[in-house]
Amino acid sequence: MANTDSVKVRVLSLNCWGIRYLSKHCRQRYAMIGHMLCKEEHDIVLLQEVWSEKDYLSLKKKLACSHPYSHYFKSGVIGSGLAIFSVHRIHDTFLFRYSLNGYPYMAHHGDWFGGKAVGMAVLNIGSLTANVYVTHLHAEYCRDKDSYLPHRVVQAWELQQFIRHTSAGADLVILGGDLNMHPQDLGNRLLRSYTGLQDAYLETANFDGCEDGMTLIADNPFINKKELRPFENGIRIDYILFKGSSKTDIYCDFMSTTKGSVPNHPFPYSDHEALTTGLRLETHTQTETGSDRQTKIQDSAAGKLAVLVDIVTEARTEVKVGLHCAERMRYTATRTGVMGLALLFLELAIAAVPWLALGTEQPFPRTSFYLLAALCFAILLTTFLLYIFYTMELKALQGAEDQMRLAVGSLQEKLRGFPLAQPHNAQQRPPEGHEPSALTPEE
Amino acid sequence: MANTDSVKVRVLSLNCWGIRYLSKHCRQRYAMIGHMLCKEEHDIVLLQEVWSEKDYLSLKKKLACSHPYSHYFKSGVIGSGLAIFSVHRIHDTFLFRYSLNGYPYMAHHGDWFGGKAVGMAVLNIGSLTANVYVTHLHAEYCRDKDSYLPHRVVQAWELQQFIRHTSAGADLVILGGDLNMHPQDLGNRLLRSYTGLQDAYLETANFDGCEDGMTLIADNPFINKKELRPFENGIRIDYILFKGSSKTDIYCDFMSTTKGSVPNHPFPYSDHEALTTGLRLETHTQTETGSDRQTKIQDSAAGKLAVLVDIVTEARTEVKVGLHCAERMRYTATRTGVMGLALLFLELAIAAVPWLALGTEQPFPRTSFYLLAALCFAILLTTFLLYIFYTMELKALQGAEDQMRLAVGSLQEKLRGFPLAQPHNAQQRPPEGHEPSALTPEE
Asked: Considering only CB atoms, which chain B residues are within 8 Å of A91?
């Protein structure tokens, strides 16, 4: 806190890659991370992939003096992996689990078991209320054929909803995390345009770190260079985003990333680079009311609204692709289940033959008979579970699509409030609802 | 809208009991509900248990003129069952699914499949921003031995969190729904004390309806009187709650419930009674800022804070009971799984005997052998799925417990700001954390 008018806040975000027994040098890296955090004394530390609570507790013990306040967000089977450490008292926390997060049978990808979520902590920095968010979205395993794209888009949609709706009372908003999206990816644009969050890397006055702010780089010894292709040097998928309020202006004084190695250590903190940013908060004397602030988006230029309409429409299209895919998968599961049932009936019919023609010997070898029955039951059980799962996926995708359609309608309605500046692109893309929309009667 | 200074809003909440083919007279009752809504023209209609989207769509068609704006919240396997119809444009919607909601194997109770949630819609009523919430919590099947109590308490906890954090920018807040809790139940007290929501039944100037505002009554022909025992006449479990803001005062002019029958109809709208309330909104000329409003709880009397500490502590105790229960269930699943595995190994050992002593005849009858193997696999699969499920339940309960501990710490810290009025009961009940609390270093 440099002077009475401005407050400085240093924030760190790091994906710790903390899978016990699987991540390389996990224990040693946690020791390094703990040591660094203790020394650097960032105001707010946002960690992802802290999969084991034991590791969180050992970090908490180590940081008891430098960061007396902390929270570990629990969700899913093995946890959300999200943790926050703070110099300032945490008054309140809240967790929102994304409705979609991969598939349980893709166990080698493991995302489903992680229960991905966005964690929120409310802290007071001086007299200011800060809403701090930490998140980790579904990984991208293959950019060319990314079957998880609709899931990630829905996660980005829910993330922006959560931040937008929970931050109305906050003087400043900070989001840190591994978004698993490139800077210009759909979900990223959706998040930034809708919430008004600014990217610390783009806003910083001084930057010291990897080329283009990359956070997954070829120079990191834990990175398999082949997996980065076609981005030979690396990609930027970890972010610190921020925004102020009508009461608070916020500036990014500096930003830095680690560069694939840590001086005097044999390996880096993680396979991701750590991000550090220095924010400067300046409070206004005149204030607006909360409601004014919430309706601020109404006052923003028509151009911005039109861009937002385009982005949400693009997201809707992506979600629809996911919907068709989920419908196809559910259909396949149903068909396989019906075939399993038919096989079972066939078998029962065969079994009934000697029973009907009394005394006739069973023509079917017993071993095969039992194996076939077991197979039928296995098919029926698996397809039943898959059917349930795909139905839930469908409901979540439909829910997001409905919300997006409603949002597009509402944004277009607002656009009509700008008679002079009504842009073409917003009109060219009306909400393409298959069912009658609640928004149409007046349109 | 009677005069220029005050705005009137009529709200209806109804649990529709809309399980197609299972609920009695489902189609006819929907026709009655649609007719009534069309005629009465409530500003906001909050429906629960609209399990089929087809029924929602047919209602939407019927109400196209009276309620042009609507939203159906999708979640879980068969949907959240929540729907909202509005005279005022819905600008935005958001859905929060509760992290706990019963057990999938309790299929006859069905709650798990419903994907219980709280839905939010942002509407503009004149110049005011209204956040309207609709929810339906887990049912209570046996009050004496309610195994779902920890789940319902966690749902109430998450409901209050969701409302508190998303309503900072709203001028008025309305919550309607089937809370499945009696007026003085823990979850209900938690919800009302933490959010400051007021109960329309308790605040109304005029009431016309069932005795004690009951919404599940013995006089309703769809109600099994035996299930109501020991509450012979009925219980009050459906609510309309509301609160204003620093900008808006809100008054309840009247409230009514249906009384177990509908004039000129052979049966009532549902097994629950419908609630209608008339709210009057009055806006201030002077306004506070959003941040002032959010920190308003800080200014409330120490007594209220102490009560809140007590309630949250009570909720924590209940969640801990749930934790022990879930731990026990997971332990049982693990033990059964280990026994299944042991049985499988035993069988394999028996099978290996003739293979090791070449030529010896298999001593074990083949049929039993295969049946036993199938049993082993079934046990292993079931216990594995149960283990995964109980682990997720444990994580969710632990997460809620952590948040409650943090909240109690923060509330106690605020209480210390009232040196004169520090009450005894708040001090007698410190947070009883088994693990070192993040809040203790300064305490």
From this structure: 410
